[in-house]
């Protein structure tokens, strides 16, 4: 009865909840863009204001500075919150991030990226709508739904929201460790909603993530950009050097070429290998999510293994290269190539950094170029591997089944949420990853979307999760 009342109220409030999400996505809180850093602060204020209106006690914590593009820049505050403090109730710590990846209409978006549009397939389109503002607004809406139904919220909420997740969660680890026995001391468990279903039909619970180690290398030589007709063939070109080094990192079939990297990877046991046989996933899911038939492997088993349990290396971009239209005959003077490695058990960030740096410097040195290469390790977040055999996952599973009418699959994910492992270790509490969006939402891509159905059911899922949590006899 309680849940039916909540579900009905949520359905009636649909337009209001969408409007709140539209307000959140209209703030372009891009953590990686120094010019947009004030918008990350604005978003922190938005989160504080909205939860305060709901009666939560919110505060902003200053976490100091970091270096960005060679400059010392203040980090956006961490937002902490508390909603309810009844000692007879369980306490769950929820985490979300309020920053987003960069987006610009000229990247190929069909609509303005920071204006929420609902298309004719009932999909909400905007940057951050699924990653991670939809789930964040989902929690606000769940609290509001309980209030408007006149129902007591069944658990205490502790909140930890950050604005630097898409830039490596700088500064958050220290705060979590410092507050583990203070602000977060009462947490019985941690719930993070920042992952996605594997496909588009079946809900999942996520119990593993890859880590990410992000690198860049600058190659520079001439004092300024040069005319290729005048100087081509007579000088060492930074771009040619950089491409040679970048090409030495990975093969087109995804094989990482850095010596020693694969030695760090935990061996696949036959028990783990069997787990992949029962996952509900089709090669067409990959084709639909990428919008093209470009799979490296022809079967789902190897595809999922390379997404979840093997490392991958991706080349992301080259700063300083000519990228405009037309045919400019330039030799760029200074270029900065960016790439990252998704890491898996048992890779250690420091070992990875050393192997990568040694390889890059060795390959560059073998070129015999008179240009200069500088290697940068930008940030590193750890992988996380847990087990779904825990009462907290039973709670998540029961809640999911009540809302979707089907038991969720238990899956891992190829992306990274660097603080997951920090929460688990510092608080010594179970962490459940409870997704809202689908596998084809296009997080980080153009036309990022969140299906209206997932948003509405996601709000119901959060309401049901706290209801089930309160009933759990642990
Ligand atoms: N939804 C989680 C997510 O997108 N995480 C990012 C984390 C990251 C680290 N460095 C840059 N981004 C991811 O890319 O997995
Ligand atoms: Zn995210
Ligand atoms: Zn993201």
From TrEMBL:
Give residue ranges for domain Peptidase M20 dimerisation. Answer: 207-363
Annotated Gene Ontology MF terms? metal ion binding; metallodipeptidase activity
- Which cofactor names does the annotation list? Mn(2+)
Q: Which residues bind Mn(2+) 2?
A: 97, 131, 194
Per the entry, the cofactor note is: Binds 2 manganese ions per subunit.
Q: Which Gene3D superfamilies match?
A: 3.30.70.360, Zn peptidases (3.40.630.10)
Q: Which Pfam families match?
A: M20_dimer, Peptidase_M20
**What is the protein's given name?**
Dipeptidase Dug1
Active site annotated at which positions? 99, 165 (proton acceptor)
Q: Where is this site: Important for catalytic activity?
A: 227
Q: Please tell me where substrate binds in this chain.
A: 194, 227, 329, 342, 416, 444
GO BP:
proteolysis
Record-stated family: Belongs to the peptidase M20A family.
The record's InterPro entries line, in alphabetical order, gives: CNDP/DUG1, Cyt/Met_Dipeptidase, Peptidase_M20, Peptidase_M20_dimer
Residues that hold Mn(2+) 1 according to the record: 131, 166, 444
Q: Which CDD domains does this entry report, sorted A to Z?
A: M20_dipept_like_CNDP
- Keyword terms of this UniProt record: Hydrolase, Manganese, Metal-binding, Metalloprotease, Protease
């Amino acid at each position: 009865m309680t849940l039916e009342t909540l579900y009905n109220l949520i359905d009636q409030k649909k337009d209001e909840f969408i409007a709140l999400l539209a307000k959140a996505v209209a703030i372009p809180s891009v953590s990686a863009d120094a010019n947009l850093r004030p918008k990350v602060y604005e978003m922190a204020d938005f989160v504080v204001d909205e939860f305060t209106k709901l009666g939560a006690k919110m505060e902003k914590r200053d976490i100091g500075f970091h270096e960005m593009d060679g400059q010392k820049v203040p980090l956006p505050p961490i937002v902490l919150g508390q909603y309810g403090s009844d000692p007879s109730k369980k306490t769950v710590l929820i985490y979300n991030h309020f920053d987003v990846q960069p987006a610009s209409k000229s990247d190929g978006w069909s609509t303005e990226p920071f204006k929420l549009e609902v298309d004719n397939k009932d999909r909400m389109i905007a940057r951050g709508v699924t990653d991670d503002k939809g789930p964040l607004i989902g929690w606000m809406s769940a609290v509001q739904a309980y209030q408007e139904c006149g129902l007591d919220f069944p658990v205490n909420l502790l909140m930890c929201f950050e604005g630097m997740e898409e830039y490596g969660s700088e500064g958050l680890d220290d705060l979590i460790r410092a507050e583990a026995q203070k602000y977060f001391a009462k947490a019985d468990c941690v719930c993070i909603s920042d992952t996605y279903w594997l496909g588009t039909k079946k809900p999942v619970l996520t119990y593993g993530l890859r880590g990410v180690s992000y690198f860049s290398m600058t190659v520079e030589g001439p004092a300024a950009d040069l005319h290729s007709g005048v100087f081509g063939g007579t000088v060492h070109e930074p771009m040619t050097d950089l491409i040679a080094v970048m090409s030495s990192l990975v093969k087109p079939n995804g094989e990482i070429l850095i010596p020693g990297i694969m030695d760090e990877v935990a061996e696949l046991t036959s028990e783990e290998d069997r787990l992949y046989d029962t996952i509900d996933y089709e090669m067409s899911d990959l084709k639909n999510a990428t919008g093209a038939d470009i799979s490296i492997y022809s079967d789902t088993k190897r595809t999922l293994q390379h997404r979840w349990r093997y490392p991958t290396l991706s080349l992301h971009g080259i700063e300083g290269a000519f990228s405009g239209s037309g045919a400019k005959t330039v030799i760029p003077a200074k270029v900065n190539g960016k790439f990252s490695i998704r890491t898996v058990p048992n890779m250690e960030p420091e070992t990875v950094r050393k192997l990568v740096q040694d390889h890059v410097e060795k390959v560059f040195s073998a070129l015999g170029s008179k240009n200069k290469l500088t290697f940068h390790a930008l940030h590193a977040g750890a992988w996380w591997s847990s087990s779904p055999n825990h009462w907290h996952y039973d709670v998540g599973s029961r809640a999911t089944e009540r809302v979707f009418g089907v038991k969720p699959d238990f899956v891992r994910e190829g992306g990274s949420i660097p603080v997951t492992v920090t929460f688990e270790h510092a608080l010594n509490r179970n962490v459940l990853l409870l997704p809202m969006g689908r596998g084809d939402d296009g997080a980080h891509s153009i036309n990022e979307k969140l299906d209206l159905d997932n948003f509405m059911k996601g709000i119901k899922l959060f309401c049901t999760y706290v209801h089930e949590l309160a009933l759990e006899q642990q």
